[in-house]
Amino acid sequence: MPSKTRVSAFRPHRDDVLLCVASVLAGLFLWSLGVHSSPNRNLLPDWAALVPLFVLGAMELLRRTAPRVTLPVGTVGIIADQFTVGNMATVLIFTDLMYAAVVYGKPSMARRLPVSTGLITIAVTIASVAWLRTPQALLIGVITGIVSFGPALTGATLRNHREAAEAARLRAEQTALLAEMDRSQAVVAERARMARELHDMVANHLSAIAIHSTAALSIDSPATSRDALGVIRENSVQGLAEMRRLIGLLRDAGAEQEPVAVPSLDGLDVLVGKARVNGAGSGLDFVLEDTRADGEPLPAPVELAAYRIVQESLTNALKHAVPGTVRVRLTSADGLLTVRVDSPYGERPGPRAPGSGAGLVGMRERTELLGGAFHAGRAGTVWQVRASLPAEEKAVTG
Prior knowledge:
rod-shaped; 12 helices; 5-stranded mixed beta sheet; Heat Shock Protein 90; 65% helix; alpha+beta
């Protein structure tokens, strides 16, 4: 496997093969016409200029895959070309190798080459002027810059643009991913809120219907059946009305609607009264103790949460409590509204409505969303529900 990977790493790109063939053919064509870059140099035969041409042309095959090899070999080749009559194609191939080394090489090479070629250009220019002492000596430095520094700078500019574009693409993908995560979390939170509202609005009526229908079926008494049917009809009508209102809100979520009355603690008397009627047949009594100061303002989310917690606690009492007194207590102190519901706990005779546990989950979620504390559990012969909610506006909105 390592040898196969090594072979594929040095496999030339198709465009590099075409560039190699075109460069070598162009160099051969110029040589055949007798077009040389330095025709006055007769140190070696004319055909010697073809050796650097073929060597640098072969390096074109590896310009993308092995820039650390092609650049040193190309540098040696261009220096050797200066001892022959020269070939313009060899010089052009070297400039491309320099450009490719910056574009396709490692980041350290891309940073180092523009600086090093710039320093070499300056050094060659100073040395040429100091040695020849003629203005034409500046041309040597200019040509050196065109052959080495120019391609390196061009490659560095292109590479920087590519890296900036890639970074922008990654940021866009991350932004889109975060937006999708936010959307998914918002959908999940909205579904949880809808589930809590649906459960709190309808569960109370359905629980009463389940209890009284079970009583009507299990107790062979016309009077009991008549009372149970009356409670069933009242709760089914109210539950159906609330269900229709909720469905209307969901269907017309984007349309302008009339304000909907939000349950508040002022309606606890009515809520406890309904529970008292529904639980009379099971031997349950319901008592409300509100020790808060009169007219004490509360944030709307706190009032709604407290109302729903009391509502769900009364529903659970109707389904599971043994005969006795269910006490609902509201107190306010130290910036906290405390909701307490105590229900008699034990083996319950007669019909019992099933429970799913979703009510306790909903009460805990409502409390924690407001930054409060929730507890529900058995304490001897009493089932206790405790919820402490922040009673100050800044605590809820902060």
